[in-house]
Amino acid sequence: IMISPLPGVTPTKPGSAQKPLPGISALVVDEQGNPVPHGSGGYLVLDKPWPAMLRGIWGDPDRYQNTYWTKYTNHGYYFAGDGAKYDHDGDIWLLGRVDDVMNISGHRISTTEVESALVSHPTIAEAAVVGATDPTTGQGIVAFVILRATATPTPDTITTLREHVATQIGPIAKPRQILIVNELPKTRSGKIMRRLLRDVAENREIGDTTTLADTTVMDLITNGLKNAPSED
User: Fold this and answer.
1) CB–CB of 73/32 below 8 Å?
2) Is the pLDDT of residue 11 over 80?
3) Residue with the larger pLDDT of the pair 67 and 38
4) Residue 216: which H helix or E strand, with range?
5) How large is the angle between the packed helices 194-201 and 216-227, nearest 10 degrees?
6) Number of neighbouring beta carbons within 10 Å of residue 176
7) pLDDT at 129
8) Per the record, which residues fall in region Disordered (predicted)?
9) What are the strands, taking DSSP E only, across the chain?
């Protein structure tokens, strides 16, 4: 742990990693490596790395260099692949892996952030969110949700969920499409395979499904999304 509040010292803020621990220097920077202002998001880096950090990947030095150091070679930053943002107090909030961070009209939004907003609605049991190419906003948010057993879908359910996300996060995070499903594509160990959901959202050929617990799930989701309404 390198970014964390100090119990009894730092006033805590639920959900925020807050500040780097003493001796650690971390920044949230933009694509060019410039620190972003408070209230903005970008990439989480360690701007003052030290010799005792991870020194390499056994048998694959090129992968180590490309994964952690290449993006900000000129700055000497260590980048582990996480997105983050500053709030208006300058506290750091982790957004997750950059592969799971969507760029909506220039705003960096975490898929986890939208999923959390969806499952906070009393009718939603589980949610998975992916980004899909959008000609207007760069990426559009596509959500797949499972209703609770006690919930019954109505003609207003999708609209209600969109507005709920907008209230929780902001209008920019309102999903372009929401599909109600009976099951999400999961491995036998229970991990949601977002890679396959991205294929569906991008209207691509579905990738390898051999690790799915139930391969028929993808057929149902693919057909369902084709008929799902899209927000203009």
Assistant:
1) no
2) yes
3) 38
4) helix 216-227
5) 30
6) 22
7) 93
8) 1-21
9) 26-29, 41-46, 78-86, 92-97, 101-104, 107-110, 124-134, 138-147, 177-180
Q: List C-alpha distances in Å: 100 to 81, 150, 195, 232.
A: 10, 30, 10, 24
DSSP state of 21: P
pLDDT category at 230 given cuts 50, 70, 90 is low
pLDDT digits (tens, 9 = 90+) for 70-126: 989 899 999 988 888 898 999 998 877 777 788 888 888 888 889 889 999 999 999
Alpha helices by DSSP H, 69-147? 111-119
Q: Is residue 24 helix, strand or coil?
A: coil
The CATH topology of domain 26-98 is: Luciferase; domain 3 (2.30.38)
Residue 83, both tokens? 């997105």
Domain layout of the chain by residue ranges: 26-98, 105-227
Paired tokens of 181? 């499903």
Contacts of 5 (CB under 8 A, 6+ apart): 11, 12, 13, 16, 18, 19
∠ CA 160-163-165, nearest 5°, is 110
Helix (H, G, I), strand (E, B) or coil at 159: helix
Measured between alpha carbons, how far is 2 from 26 in angstroms, rounded to an integer? 9
CA angle 167, 168, 173 (to 5 degrees): 80
Q: Which residues contact 165 (CB under 8 A, 6 or more apart)?
A: 114, 117, 118, 173, 174, 175
